[in-house]
Amino acid sequence: MNSEKEDLRVRRTRTLLYKAILEIINNHSFESITVKQICEHAMVNRATFYKYFMDKYHLLSEAFRELSSQEVIISKDDLSPRDMFKQGLIFANNHKNLFMQVLSEERDSLRGIIKEELRGGLRGHLAIKHSLPNDSIMLDLLTEAHTGAVINVIFWCLENNIKTETEEIYKVFDNFHL
Q1: Residues in domain HTH tetR-type (predicted)?
Q2: How far is Cα 63 from Cα 76, in angstroms, rounded to an integer?
Q3: C-beta separation of 160 from 154 below 8 A
C-alpha cells in the first residue's frame, strides 16, 4: 500500500511539472524559462524537481514524450515517411505553440527532442524498404536525411498555417527517395 501511494505521488508530481512547462512555454521562450518558474507554477519544491529531472531540458524532453505517447505513435518501427509526416503534422498542429518554440530554437538539444522520437520509426521503415542491416552507414544516412526532411517540412507547414488535409504534401513523402 505504501509503495502504491508513493507511485501515485511520483506520477502526480511528474504530471504537475509536465503541465507546468507546457503551459509556461505558451507564453515565454524556452530559453527564458527558469526551474524556479516551473516549480512555482507546478507548486512543487525545487528539490523535488531535481529529484526527477536534471534540468529544464530533461523535463521538456520527458513532457514531450509523455504528450506524444498519449496522442500519437511516432516511434512505431515501420512508419513510412508519409505516415510519420502526417502523424507529426497532426500532433504539431495540436500543439503549435510548443512546436514553434522548440523548432525555432537554434539549440540542438531542443530540436533533438523531436528528432530522437522520429528517428526510431523511420529507421525501422527504411531498413525494411531498402533491405539494409541495422549497422549500415547507409541506413544511418537515410534515417537522418528523412528525419530532417520531416522536421523541416512540419515547421514550414506550421509557419504557413498548412493543416493536415494537404494530400499534395503527403504524395511528396510517398515519392521521397534518397
Answers
A1: 11-71
A2: 19
A3: no
Sign of CA dihedral 139, 140, 144, 145: negative
DSSP conformation class of 165: T
Query: Once rounded to an integer, what is the mean pLDDT over residues 8-32?
Result: 91
160 by DSSP, 3-state: which?
coil
Put simply, whether the predicted model's pTM sits higher than 0.70 gets the answer no
Amino acid occupying residue 133: P
- What separation in angstroms does the CA of 155 have from each of 102, 131, 148? 10, 30, 11
> Mind listing the domains of the chain with CATH numbers?
2-55 (1.10.10.60), 72-174 (no CATH)
Nearest alpha carbon to residue 120 among 103, 144, 96: 144
16 class by beta-carbon count within 10 Å (0-12 exposed, 13-18 middle, 19+ buried): middle
Alpha carbon distance 98, 20 (integer Å) = 12
Integer CA distances (angstroms), 98 to 40, 92, 117, 131, 156, in order:
20, 8, 15, 36, 15
- Percent of the chain residues past pLDDT 90, beyond the cut: 27
Q: 156 phi and psi, to 5 degrees?
A: -60, -45
Residue 4 half-sphere exposure toward CB, CA atoms < 13 A: 1
Q: Are 118 and 74 in contact (CB under 8 A)?
A: yes
